[in-house]
Recover the amino acids of this structure.
């Protein structure tokens, strides 16, 4: 180390610099840990508040695990509160299935078009526009479903209930499309050019190449996109709260109104007395939702790792 | 180091904002009123009237449902709870356990709970037993009670609503609503849904019944149908007359008391009738 400027002791200068870098590094580390700590605290909080439904012997029978499946009714307020989870689980399942059946083909085919067929200029326009869809606040999407989509669907299907699982599912599907599209498109774009060139050189058409080469090669990434979309659909609240009618009906048809887990929490949590059985049950629903989305997200992560390995390995 | 200067400014600005907010707070702490959605319009009008006559006084009114308001009162996040149903025994017990005394209950107005149908519906009156059968899902077609041959679509309120609790207790005798009842946030949403749905039925405060048809209520088959009016609410002949209440944790602080006194004053009670509810005292004939 040479002396940079006369009058400054090079050793102390270096020490100062090292000190500063140390401080910065620790600050960054603290930020990272704060985020993780926040997440952990939320998890601990949700599960701790949900615990009484499972463990506290003082919890009334209705608000325990056995009570959840003893009644087909969700009516937590009344002389005999009824915490039947079945209609909520069925409702959530119905909406999510409709949403995924609607969103998956649209989003995946759009991704195939964008990555395989669109000219670069078209792709540059298409991708941001679809991704803007993700930026639409879900309350706006819910409002659209409540006012416009519901009337339109009722006119087409002639269902007696205006707000139903189909309406909420399609609105939810619109919200899920950008998630699935973005991840699937990135996965398809990551397929090496050599794959496509090899296929085309062997005489395959562009469609055959896209369908038989690119899509299978990127299947893990497309799967990850679908799973992330699924996790979003399960947890999404505002759209279903506004568009589903919120009647806790257990039935197989999508033309009935439904009440989902997330919408029940949103509609009821503001009202409950802290620490009451109803409060614990709502937190139990929250913990359940958390577990489901967590498992789906982990599965999506596994898919992404598999995709990376496949594209790098061969 | 511009970034440092910027950070210093940002910190100064935030602390200035925080300090002024604190100063405002200590200057005139707002009186908060929270609870029943049924009462929001009324209490909001009272608050405007009161603040108009008392410069510097601030009254904040929010809805959410009677249950929400009572929970807020117990959790200590509101001064006054507005409730369209009397407090339940277990809620009273929680208040007592937490604050060592019973909550004070003040009757501030009366309301008639109306049953509405679409204006195209030929029905004009309904017995309480019919309403119960409909809302419990036993009667599913309008034909059964003299209407056209069409399925009945039930509109109800979220279970944090005092209107929901009142209807469940007085019409359903504490029984369960049919699972097919769609729950909507707020009486206005119920009225809106019924006004659009030819086969719909809903319930809520009679002050909200715009664009829908209110049914005359009959206690049983033999008794006459009664519409909610000042006279029928006060003499008790309307079957679904209820009180609208304020609840407090113990004694009211001076600003809270001043606001409540205003609501109960002649001027305040006049507003009750204007908004569409019924004053506590029977109006002079």
């Amino acid at each position: 180390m040479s002396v940079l400027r006369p009058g400054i002791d090079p050793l102390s200068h270096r020490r100062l610099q090292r000190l500063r870098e140390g401080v910065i590094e620790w600050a960054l580390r603290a930020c990272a840990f704060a985020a993780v700590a926040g997440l952990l605290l939320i998890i601990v909080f949700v599960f701790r508040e949900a615990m009484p439904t499972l463990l506290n012997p003082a919890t009334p029978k209705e608000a325990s695990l056995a009570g959840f499946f003893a009644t087909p009714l969700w009516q937590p307020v009344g002389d005999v509160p009824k915490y039947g989870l079945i209609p909520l689980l069925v409702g959530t399942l119905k909406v999510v299935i409709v949403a995924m059946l609607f969103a998956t083909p649209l989003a995946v085919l759009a991704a195939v078009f964008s990555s395989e067929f669109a000219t670069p200029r078209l792709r540059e326009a298409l991708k941001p526009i679809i991704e803007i869809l993700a930026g639409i606040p879900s309350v706006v999407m819910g409002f659209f479903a409540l006012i416009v989509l519901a009337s339109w669907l009722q006119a087409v299907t002639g269902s007696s209930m205006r707000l139903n699982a189909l309406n909420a599912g399609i609105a939810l599907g619109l919200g899920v499309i950008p998630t699935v599209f973005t991840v699937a498109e990135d996965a398809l774009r990551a397929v090496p050019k050599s794959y496509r060139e090899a296929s085309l050189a062997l005489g395959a058409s562009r469609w055959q190449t896209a369908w038989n080469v690119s899509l299978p090669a990127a299947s893990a990434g497309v799967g990850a996109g679908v799973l992330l979309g699924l996790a979003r659909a399960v947890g999404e609240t505002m759209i279903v709260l506004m568009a589903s009618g919120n009647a806790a009906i257990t039935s197989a048809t999508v033309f009935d109104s439904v009440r989902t887990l997330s919408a029940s929490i949103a509609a009821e949590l503001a009202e409950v007395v802290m620490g009451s059985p109803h409060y614990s049950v709502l937190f139990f629903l929250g913990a359940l939702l958390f577990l489901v989305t967590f498992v789906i997200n982990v599965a999506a992560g596994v898919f992404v790792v598999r995709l990376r390995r496949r594209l790098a390995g061969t | 180091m511009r970034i440092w200067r910027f950070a210093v400014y940002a910190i100064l600005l935030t602390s200035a904002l925080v300090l002024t907010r604190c100063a405002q707070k200590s200057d005139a702490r707002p009186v908060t009123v929270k609870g029943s959605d049924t009462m929001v319009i009324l209490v909001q009008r009272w608050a405007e009237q009161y603040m108009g006559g008392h410069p510097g006084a601030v009254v904040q009114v929010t809805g959410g449902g009677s249950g929400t308001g009572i929970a807020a009162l117990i959790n200590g996040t509101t001064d006054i709870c507005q409730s369209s149903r009397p407090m339940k025994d277990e809620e009273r017990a929680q208040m007592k356990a937490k604050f060592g005394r019973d909550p004070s209950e003040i009757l501030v107005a009366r309301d008639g709970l109306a049953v509405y149908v679409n204006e195209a519906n030929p029905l004009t009156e309904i017995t309480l037993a019919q309403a119960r059968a409909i809302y419990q899902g036993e009667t599913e077609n309008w034909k059964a009670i003299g209407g056209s041959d069409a399925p009945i679509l039930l509109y109800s309120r979220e279970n944090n609503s005092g209107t929901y609790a009142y209807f469940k207790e007085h019409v359903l005798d504490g029984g369960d609503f049919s699972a097919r009842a769609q729950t909507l946030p707020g009486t206005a949403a119920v009225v809106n849904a019924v006004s659009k749905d030819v086969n719909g039925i809903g319930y809520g405060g009679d002050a909200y019944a715009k664009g829908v048809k209110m049914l005359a209520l009959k206690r049983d088959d033999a008794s006459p149908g009664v519409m909610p009016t000042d006279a029928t609410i006060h003499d008790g002949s309307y079957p679904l007359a209820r009180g609208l209440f304020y609840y407090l944790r113990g004694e009211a602080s001076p600003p809270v008391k001043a606001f409540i006194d205003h609501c109960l004053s002649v001027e305040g009670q006049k507003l009750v009738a204007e908004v569409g509810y019924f004053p506590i005292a029977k109006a002079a004939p």
User: Anything to note?
Assistant: The mean pLDDT of chain B is 85. DSSP finds ten helices and eleven strands in chain B. The two ends of chain B are 79 Å apart (CA to CA). The first strand of chain B starts at residue 31 and ends at 35.
